[in-house]
Amino acid sequence: MKKKKPLTRSQNMGRIKSKNTKLEIYIRKLLFKMGYRYRINYSMLPGTPDIYILKYKTAIFVNGCFWHRHENCKIATFPNTHEEFWEKKFRRNVERDMEVREKFFEMDISVITIWECEIREMQKNEIYRKKYLETLKNRIERVFNYCEKDISIQMKKNRNEEKYK
């Protein structure tokens, strides 16, 4: 039996998809089941949102915690090699995300960011998934509010309140 050669770092990184990831498909299926119709990877808008719900003028980004630096997330680790390169790359990703959010604000389009860790939690925990989808539905169908925090922050607040009840 032949031994396979180990992949180089470049080959490994080249295999990471940016569109139609399993997480995106999972969210799209849930949204479709909820009755929403949407465009995927809508290139007419800045930042090419993963999902765009035209009826509600809502752009949804499904972000990986590692690449987009989700705050206080255990998935958002920092590589030990080439630290300068990674720091610059991550900083630019976060800056780009903020620039895109501001452009959407100017266009009166609401932005929802769904993080990888939230989706993983939804896949494991049925109660969390139901609460998250209810919050997501309220956020999609509500009037746009730029100052509103991410759903993940709202869900953490709800989870902490439940501990003390």
Explain briefly what this protein structure is.
By secondary structure, the protein is an alpha+beta fold.
Describe the structure in your own words.
With 165 residues, the chain is an alpha+beta fold. Helix content is 51%, strand content 10%. The protein has helices at 9-14, 22-33, 65-68, 83-106, 116-124, 126-141, 151-163; strands at residues 39-40, 51-53, 58-63, 110-115. Strand 2 and strand 3 (58-63) form a beta hairpin. Helix 5 packs across helix 6 (126-141). The chain starts with 8 loop residues before the first helix and ends with a helix.
- Outline the biggest β-sheet: 4 strands, mixed
C-alpha Rg (nearest Å) = 18 Å
Helix-strand sequence: HHEEEHHEHHH
Sequence stretches where pLDDT stays below 50 over 5 or more residues: none
Instruction: Tell me the structural class.
Output: alpha+beta
Strand content: 5-15%
Number of strands: 4
Shape designation = globular
Spatial strand order of the main sheet: 1-2-3-4
Helical content class:
40-55%
Architecture blueprint of SSEs:
Layout: H1 9-14, H2 22-33, E1 39-40, E2 51-53, E3 58-63, H3 65-68, H4 83-106, E4 110-115, H5 116-124, H6 126-141, H7 151-163
Parallel strand pairs: 3-4
Antiparallel strand pairs: 1-2, 2-3
Helix pairs in contact: 5-6
Which descriptors would you attach to this protein?
165 residues, alpha+beta, 4-stranded mixed sheet, 51% helix, globular
